[in-house]
Task: structure prediction
Amino acid sequence: MLDVIAPYWNFLLVHPLISLLVAAYDLVHDFGFAIVAVTIAIRLTLYPLFKIQIRNQRAMQELAPAMADLKAKFGTDKQRLSKEQMKLYQERGYNPAMGCLPLLLQMPLLLAMYAAFNQAPHLTGASLAQDLIPFVPNPLGPDQTIDLTAHWLPWMTTCPPAAVGQACGLGAPDPWHLLPILAGATQLISSVMFQPMAKPKTVDQQQKMMQSMQYYFPLLTVFIAWSLPAGLAIYWVTTTLFGIVQQYFVSGWGQLPKFLPFLKKIPSPADRTLAARQQAALDEEQRDMATKAAVASNGPGAQNTREARRQRNRNKKK
Result:
């Protein structure tokens, strides 16, 4: 089965990725910098999708107080709670499914990068010419190999001349395991920033499990990167740092100031907007609760008022 899929997998992802790495290597003459450049290019290309993810992340933070309020009121009535949550999602323009899309895209890229590093040590100038996209020039002679060294990482082994088929440089695991640890550390920072600054008090077990997983994932990152090519760790560190910068501007520091108190004195561009929209979501839900009470005592007229308010919110979003 894998033999049938492999040519298509190489054609669609692995060989284009190798071509991008070679093109960047031809410009910067350092394979480590080439990985950084290609990673940033990929993140910029996929920026619209990651922007949707962070907006959904931001919306979830804004809705956290209102969600906690709903769970306090309807915690024992799961059907009613689910209905009210969906109404709240619609009113605030939040789509839970969209948060998973960038992750689904990242996994094939990570696997393709792994495949590229597995193939790179076996490539000579002659074999590389068959894999390159036509407009990417081949910087190697027929018998030359790609230098997989990152010259700015002195602890990484240098690839010897004509090291065809040998895993060396960024094609081999980090001998000191510093890059896998750095990948886990940056993932931990991103996970802490992902958590809203003010955690709602909730007994929702699913939400607690998801919060716990955000702290286990950095350990999983270190475990995976420990024995894989070091170039993958550089890719992971770069893409995570890019995401951290996005999170800073869109959703703020999250819970990072809890561990680094000096950050409390450095407000992010998102802090004021986030606090205002959190309060707006909570106020909206409280007004809805008051409207329901009015419907129960005054008849269907108040329900029309609520629907009109919802329509106004939708129009504002458009």
About this structure: The chain has one domain: 2-271. Residues 2-271 form one domain.
